[in-house]
Design brief:
Blueprint: H1 8-19, H2 23-36, E1 41-47, E2 53-58, H3 65-71, H4 97-103, E3 106-112, E4 119-125, E5 128-129, E6 133-135, E7 140-146, H5 153-156, H6 162-179, E8 184-188, E9 193-197, H7 204-216, H8 218-222, E10 224-231, E11 234-241, E12 246-247, E13 253-257, E14 260-262, H9 265-274, E15 284-285, E16 287-292, E17 298-299, E18 310-311, H10 314-331, H11 338-348, E19 368-370, E20 377-379, H12 390-394, H13 401-404, H14 409-412, H15 414-417, E21 445-450, E22 454-459, E23 462-467, H16 468-485, E24 491-501, H17 504-512, H18 514-519, E25 523-526, E26 531-538, H19 546-560, H20 570-581, H21 591-602, E27 617-621, H22 622-628
Parallel strand pairs: 1-8, 13-16
Antiparallel strand pairs: 1-2, 2-7, 3-4, 3-7, 4-5, 4-6, 8-9, 10-11, 11-16, 12-15, 13-14, 17-18, 19-20, 21-22, 22-23, 23-27, 24-26, 25-26
Helix pairs in contact: 1-4, 2-6, 6-7, 9-10, 16-20, 16-21, 17-19, 19-20
Length: 632
C-alpha cells in the first residue's frame, strides 16, 4: 500500500486513545485546565459514570471567541510561554485534551472571559468543529462532554460498570483536590450529592491537613505527622501517618510533584525504605507528600497521561524523602496512633448490629497473627477513632533522653539484659518504693503485670497496656543502631563458646559474613563442616538464646542474598538479634522493672511499635472505659 497522510479526525481519535482512556481521564484533563485558569471553585457532574455526560464548570479566567476556536485545535496552548518542554509550570501544556475529547464525543465549550460583557459557545461533534455562538454564562467556563466514545463504540465495550467509572472519577478528583486545598470542589452524578469540599483556610501546610482529613478520614488527620524539608532547591512537605496507622494496600499513599499527582517508582521505593524499620512487609503507611522542584530538574513529558515523571538527580530526591520521613517519625517519639486503643475497645464491647452509642462499630482486634517465629506477619485494620492526642502532646518533654533526667539504661534495666531469673534479682528490686503519681509521666505508673506478659499502667486519663516483649525489643533495637553509629556494638565474651550445628550452606553463609557480624557484636568461627562456634555476643543481648539466634540469622541471610552488605540491610539483622535479646513474655517483672521499661519507652523514638510493626502499647481513655460499664 502507498504511504498516505491520515485524516485529521482519525489522527485526533488516535490521540484520544492515548489521552482519554476512560471518563476519569477526560475529567482529569478538564479539571487541570480549570486549575490552570485560576479557578477557585470547580463543579463536576458525571452521569452514567461519565459515559452520557461530563460537565465541568469553573470560575476561572475564561476565554474569548477567538481563543475558543484555537482551544479545539491540536497542540494549541496558552501554558508554554516559550518552546522549552522542560520548563513546564502548569498541569496541562500539550494542547491535546480538548481536540482529543471532541474527536470521540460531542463537546460543547461555553466561556466568558474575565471583564467581558458576554459569553461564547463552541461545539465539536465527533471531530467536526462548529463556529462560536453567543451564549449566556457568568464568569468562567463550562465544558460539557456528551456521549463519550460515541464516535468509537468499540471503546465502550472496554469500560466498566457506571459505578466503577464514577469511582475512578471520584478518585481522580480527590487527588487533584489534595494538591490544591485552596480550591473548592464538588462532584455529583446529576442526582444525589457526592463529593463536596470547601476551600481550606490557613497556611498551606494546615490547609493540606484539613483537606486530607476530609478525604482520608479523621483517623489520618488525628494521627498524622508533619514533614517539611529542603535540600539543594528541592522542597518536600506533607503529612505522614504514624507507623501503627497502616493499611493492606498502598491506595492511601498520595505523591505529588509540582502539584501534579504522580505514580513514581522512585518515590514509592523511598517511602518504603523510610518505613522499613516500623511496618510489616505486607502493610503500607498512609501519607501525602508534595515535592516541589525546579521544572528544569524533572521531566513530566514521559507519559501520555502525565502520570509518571523522571528526575535528573534521582539520588537527591530519594535521599530527601528517606531522610525527612525518618526524621519526622523520630520526632513523633513513642507516640502510637489513637486507632489502636479505640479498636481494642471495639473488641471488648459485646457484638451488636450497627453502630454503638459511643460512635464506633465493634470490630476484631487490629492485629492477627499469621505464622510463627521472629518473622511474623502482622495485619489488620482499624475502626474510625476520635480519641484526642493528649498522650502524645504530654510526651514532648520525654522524647530526648538528655532531657528526661533518667539514670543510665544499664542501671534502670539491669535485670533485663542479663537473663536473671526473678529469684536472682538484685536486692534493690525487692525493696518497696513509693509509686510515682500516674500523671507525672505520659505512660503512667505501673500497677500490675497480667499473665506475665502485659504491663498495666495508670495514667491521669486512663490506663496503658504494654506488651513487655514488643516494647523491650524496640528499645534493644534502637540501642543497637545507636551503638553501631557510635563506633560499634560492645561485645561480651562467652565463658564457654557455643557450638551450633547447621547445614553446610547456612554455615558457609554465616562465615562469609563473619566480619560484618563482628561489627554488630557477634563473633563466630567455623568449627568443622556445617558447625559454627560463637565466641562473643552483643552485650545488649545478655544471656539470649544463642542457638536460635544463629539459626534465625542463617535463614535471614539466605533471603538477603549476597548482593547487599549487612549494614545496608541493618534493619533485618538487628531486628532479629533484638528479638532474641529482649524481655520474653512469661517473665515476672517487679514494679521497679516495669516502671523502668515505661520510662525508657518515653525516652526512645519509635517505641510505639515493635520491629515487626505491632503496637507496643494500647491506651484506653477513662471515659471510654466508663462507657463499657454504662457509667456514661
Amino acid at each position: 500500500m502507498p504511504i498516505r497522510l491520515l485524516p485529521e479526525t482519525l489522527v485526533n481519535r488516535i490521540a484520544a486513545g492515548e489521552v482519554v482512556e476512560r471518563p476519569a481521564a477526560a475529567v482529569k484533563e478538564l479539571v487541570e485546565n480549570a486549575i490552570d485558569a485560576g479557578a477557585t471553585r470547580i463543579d463536576v457532574v458525571a452521569r452514567d459514570g461519565g459515559k452520557s455526560l461530563i460537565a465541568v464548570t469553573d470560575d476561572g479566567c475564561g476565554m474569548t471567541a477567538d481563543e475558543l476556536v484555537l482551544a479545539v485545535e491540536r497542540h494549541a496552548t496558552s501554558k508554554l510561554p516559550g518552546d522549552d518542554l522542560l520548563d513546564i509550570r502548569s498541569l496541562g501544556f500539550r494542547g491535546e485534551a480538548l481536540p482529543s475529547i471532541g474527536a470521540v464525543s460531542c463537546l460543547t465549550i461555553t466561556s466568558r472571559a474575565r471583564g467581558a460583557d458576554s459569553a461564547w459557545s463552541l461545539t465539536v461533534d465527533a471531530g467536526a468543529k462548529g463556529s462560536p455562538q453567543p451564549a449566556a454564562l457568568a464568569q468562567g467556563t463550562r465544558i460539557e462532554v456528551r456521549d463519550l466514545f460515541a464516535a468509537v463504540p468499540a471503546r465502550l465495550k472496554f469500560l466498566k460498570a457506571s459505578r466503577t467509572e464514577y469511582d475512578h472519577i471520584a478518585d481522580c478528583l480527590e487527588r487533584l483536590a489534595m494538591a490544591h486545598p485552596g480550591v473548592a470542589f464538588t462532584l455529583s452524578d446529576g442526582g444525589r450529592g457526592g463529593l463536596r469540599l470547601s476551600a481550606a483556610q490557613g497556611d498551606l501546610l494546615d490547609a493540606r491537613l484539613t483537606r486530607l482529613g476530609a478525604l482520608m478520614g479523621r483517623d489520618f488527620q488525628e494521627n498524622a505527622v508533619p514533614v517539611t524539608a529542603a535540600r539543594e532547591g528541592v522542597t518536600l512537605a506533607g503529612w505522614i501517618g504514624l507507623p501503627t496507622l497502616h493499611r493492606p494496600t498502598a491506595k492511601h499513599q498520595h505523591l505529588f510533584v509540582n502539584g501534579r499527582p504522580v505514580r513514581d517508582k522512585l518515590m514509592v521505593g523511598a517511602v518504603r525504605a523510610a518505613y522499613a524499620d516500623f511496618l510489616p512487609r505486607d502493610r503500607h503507611p498512609m501519607l501525602a507528600l508534595f515535592l516541589d522542584i525546579d521544572p528544569q530538574e524533572v521531566d513530566v513529558n514521559v507519559h501520555p497521561a502525565k502520570a509518571e515523571v523522571r528526575f535528573r538527580d534521582q539520588g537527591l530526591v530519594r535521599g530527601l524523602i528517606v531522610g525527612s520521613l525518618k526524621h519526622a517519625l523520630a520526632e513523633a517519639g513513642h507516640r502510637a496512633s489513637t486507632t489502636v486503643g479505640l479498636a481494642t475497645l471495639g473488641a471488648l464491647r459485646p457484638e451488636q448490629s450497627g453502630e454503638t452509642d459511643s460512635g464506633f462499630t465493634p470490630s476484631p482486634l487490629p492485629y492477627g497473627r499469621s505464622g510463627g517465629g521472629s518473622g511474623n506477619s502482622w495485619g489488620g485494620s482499624y475502626t474510625p477513632a476520635t480519641v484526642p492526642r493528649g498522650l502524645a502532646e504530654r510526651s514532648a518533654a520525654f522524647q530526648a533522653p538528655t532531657q528526661t533526667g533518667l539514670p543510665p539504661l544499664q542501671g534502670r534495666l539491669s535485670g533485663f539484659g542479663n537473663g536473671f531469673a526473678p529469684s536472682a534479682r538484685p536486692p534493690e528490686y525487692r525493696a518497696h518504693k513509693p509509686e510515682p503519681p500516674p500523671d507525672s509521666h505520659p505512660l503512667g505508673a505501673a500497677r500490675a503485670q497480667v499473665h506475665t506478659t502485659y504491663i498495666v499502667a495508670q495514667t491521669r486519663e486512663g490506663i496503658v497496656i504494654v506488651d513487655q516483649h514488643a516494647a523491650h525489643e524496640r528499645l534493644v533495637y534502637e540501642r543497637m543502631k545507636a551503638a553501631l553509629l557510635e563506633g560499634g556494638v560492645k561485645r561480651q565474651a562467652l565463658l564457654i563458646p557455643e557450638l551450633i550445628e547447621l547445614d553446610e550452606p547456612s554455615a558457609n553463609r554465616l562465615l562469609a559474613r563473619s566480619a560484618e557480624l563482628a561489627e554488630l557484636g557477634l563473633v563466630i568461627e567455623g568449627f568443622g563442616h556445617g558447625c559454627v562456634m560463637v565466641r562473643e555476643v552483643p552485650a545488649l543481648l545478655g544471656q539470649s538464646d544463642v542457638k536460635n539466634l544463629i539459626r534465625d540469622l542463617a535463614e535471614e541471610l539466605s533471603e538477603l542474598g549476597d548482593a547487599l552488605s549487612l549494614k545496608e540491610r541493618l534493619e533485618e539483622v538487628c531486628a532479629t538479634m533484638a528479638c532474641h535479646g529482649s524481655v520474653r513474655a512469661g517473665r515476672t517483672l517487679s514494679v521497679d522493672e516495669m516502671n523502668a521499661l515505661l520510662r525508657q519507652m518515653e525516652a526512645t523514638p519509635h517505641s510505639g511499635q515493635c520491629n515487626h510493626g505491632r503496637p507496643t502499647y494500647v491506651e484506653l481513655k477513662l471515659a471510654d472505659i466508663e462507657r463499657l460499664f454504662g457509667r456514661r
